[in-house]
Amino acid sequence: MRSSTFVLICTAIAAAVFALARWYGNEYAFFAGYVVLQFIVLATAWNILGGYTGYVNFGSAAFFAVGAYTSIFFHKFYPLPIPVLIVLGGVLSGLIGLGMGYLTLRLRGAFFAIGTLALAVVLQTLVTNWTYVGGARGAYVLRPNEMEFIGPYIQYLFLLMLALTVFALSVARGIERSQLGYGFATIRDDELAAEASGVPTLRLKLIATTISGGLMGMAGAPFPYYLGYVQPSSAFGLEYAVNAIAMPMIGGTTSWVGPLIGAILLATIQQWATVTISSELGVLIVGVLLVGFVVLAPKGIVGLVGGWRRGRSG
Amino acid sequence: MEIPYDLLINALVAGLLLGAFYAAVTVGISISFGILDIVNIAHPGFIILGSYIAYIVNTRLGVDPILVSIVMLPVFYMFGAIVYQVYYHSFEKRGEDPLRGLAFFFGLLFVTEVALVIVFGVDYRYVQAPYIGPSLKFGMVDLPLRMLVPAVVALVLFLALQLFLTRTFMGRAIMGVAQDQLALRLVAASPTRIKRSAFAISMATAAVAGALLIIIQPVEPSVGREYIGRVFAICVLGGLGSIPGTLVGAMMLGVIESFTSTFYGPSWAPAVAFGVLLLVLAFRPAGLFGR
User: Fold this and answer.
1) Which tens digits make up the pLDDT trace of A197-249?
2) Which of A50, A115, A245 sits opposite B278 (nearest CB)?
3) Phi/psi of residue B155, each to 5°?
4) Does the pLDDT at position B289 exceed 80?
5) Domain count, chain B
6) Looking at the domain assignment, is residue A61 inside a domain?
7) For A125, which of A220, B59, B271, B284 could close a Cys bridge (C-beta 3.0–4.6 Å)?
8) Residues 6+ apart with CB under 8 A from B165
9) CA distance B225 to chain A (A)
10) A309: closest CA of chain B, how far (Å)
């Protein structure tokens, strides 16, 4: 399938999802749906670095929060429309990804992982001590109730996230099928051999970190408008980091389908658990599933289904 | 800015005491990450588990938290051996990429934390002991026993481990695992068994570190996260695999943090460790005492 066809099909599916949600007519469907979409973008973004090149990013929450706080900053400084904020948040977190990668990617993979964890805490401390964006107390964002042509504001946000999801999936699939994707795969499989045969590994890793970080920032940019209130502990929440890892790991890391399946599954479970029992139980399930899958089914759901189909035909 | 002399001395002493405690927290990671090359980021989570065990026994039975932790050593040792066994069979033996091993420990950290939240809630818990409260005074230097006792216990633990690793056959074998597994096989020692013991020992230190932690400060489940940065910063700063380096790194970080919170306010302290970590990674990844 050509990339343009893929984008068209995704857009069609996204339009159908939006029409279905409108037809269903329940505000809650949009609120819950927004969260699911946001996690699809985060998981897909994580997988571009983690799944394709094999470098673990524990700091997804930091990139997400950079997007969110870019919006807060501009909300106070000079209000801009959300699509512009998404681009700005993406650029800024992409640059942070680049800098982060430049500091740690020349070392072994474990250092990059620990470095990303470090980045999250450093940024959280900075934001907590920065009173202009609310400091530890957090910041309110007043949003309009209605959006012209669309209706309720949450539907507008849902639509934006839907567009972002299509964008993220297209980017991921595009990378997978390009020369860039093959370069990433050589790093994942054997970095030393790749380096020796002339693959510019550092440059490729930096590209992956930048794209991945940028997409995470884009996912975070509309977040303040979704909640109406952001504080450092919510924007930097560990559950973003865990979900961003768990979703691709459980879905399967080698293609764009895995994070999509993992995100839909886990985000739905968490929404359900939050409503029926408690949100703690929801994240506990995610943690247990993550540990269970990496131990028992390293290739994720995609791998399980693939193995099952091969088993039947053979 | 004129800095009062006694404030400076007190910040230095507090930093050294804190540093000794950090050494006890880090020594487990020094063994697992530094020597065995197992990136056990769940270690701080297990330390918090140790804190909660000390808390439960202390509040129910009134037993001294340090005593509880010593009794718990074999339990944590066994637990560590089990975790290593799972890790070995799922990742090391299969030669799986380190990515999954990292995700495994990250998952364990998260599950431990959330399970503690579900059982105990997010309230801060603390323990009772005769040495929590009073402090010794030497001239203008203030020595709170709440910090001094953990620092002494930490140094004893540290010394014992250092002697074990350099003087006994098992300890030397553990140090050897990091360097040459084939040579170990030639002297009829199984690298897997040695690594299992080493990992179990690293886990056992979490029991003691946990008890010391809850003596020093009230504990809630997410406190462990603050320590992830600290332990890795210390480990990298001291040089991977170097036990004396860990002590020096811990002392340095303790003093830097103490000065930061004295002169800039405690809300900046968490970033110090990570700032140090990023700087060391950028400029001297081998650390101070690197191999």
Assistant:
1) 888 989 999 999 999 999 999 999 999 999 888 888 888 888 888 899 999 99
2) A115
3) -65, -40
4) no
5) 1
6) yes
7) B271
8) B171, B172, B174, B175, B243
9) 9
10) 23
Q: Would the CB atoms of A111 and B236 count as touching at under 8 Å?
A: yes
Calculate how close chain A gets to B230, using CA atoms only, in Å.
Answer: 9
The answer to whether position B39 is within a domain reads yes
Domain that holds residue B127: 24-224
Asked whether the predicted pLDDT for residue B209 surpasses 90, the reply is: yes
pLDDT band at residue B2 under the 50/70/90 scheme: low
B129 belongs to a structural domain? yes
Does the residue A194 lie in any domain?
yes
Question: Nearest residue on chain A to B226, judged by CA atoms?
Answer: A121
With CA atoms as reference, the chain B residue closest to A233 would be: B222
User: How many domains are there within chain A?
Assistant: 1
More confident residue, B287 or B234: B234
The predicted model scores a pTM of 0.88
Cross-chain residue pair A283–B267, CB shorter than 8 Å: no
Q: Which residues 254-283 of A are in CB contact (within 8 Å) with B?
A: 278, 280-281, 283
Kindly report, residue by residue over B163-205, the tens digit of the pLDDT. 999 899 888 888 888 777 777 778 777 888 899 999 999 999 9
Q: Which domain holds residue A217?
A: 3-237
Angle at the Cα of A144 from the Cα atoms of A138 and A145, rounded to 5 degrees:
115
Does some domain include residue B263? no
**What's the pLDDT score for residue B17?**
93
For residue A282, the chain B residues in CB contact (below 8 A) are none
B232 neighbourhood in chain A, CB within 8 Å: 114, 117-118
Residues with Cβ within 8 Å of residue B131, at least 6 apart in sequence:
B145, B146, B148, B149, B215
B92 DSSP assignment: I
Rounded Cα gap, residues A120 and A30, in angstroms: 29
